[in-house]
Amino acid sequence: MRVHIAMGKDGGQQGCTGHGRCAVMAGEVYSLDDNGYNIHRGQTLEVPRGLEESARLGVRVCPEGAITVVRSSHVDRPGAEASTGHSRRG
Ligand code: SF4
Predict the structure, then answer these.
(1) Residues 17-27: pLDDT tens digits?
(2) In terms of C-beta distances under 8 Å and separation of at least 24 residues, what long-range contacts does 31-40 make, across chains too?
(3) Which atom of ligand 1 is found nearest the CA of 23?
(4) Taking the model in full, what pTM does it have?
């Protein structure tokens, strides 16, 4: 499983604005930099096995919708995972 953390406004799209909820709710997956932004913003993060649910929690709690689950051919928007109940690695 991979997740992408979008950049903030400078990236020209909805992205991380530094609310910090991801790190509070799912700190085993997400961390913040010294300015309160997700340290992986602008990057795709490989989620360690066993932490997929925490990664999905981060997707749900981010108020900006900045964290998205990445699949091989597309990016799921927040909430999309709930309809399938699971995802496959790839
Ligand atoms: S919750 Fe969203 S906006 Fe806040 S730090 Fe995490 S990725 Fe950025």
Answers:
(1) 998 999 999 99
(2) 37/8, 38/5, 38/66, 38/67, 40/5
(3) 6
(4) 0.77
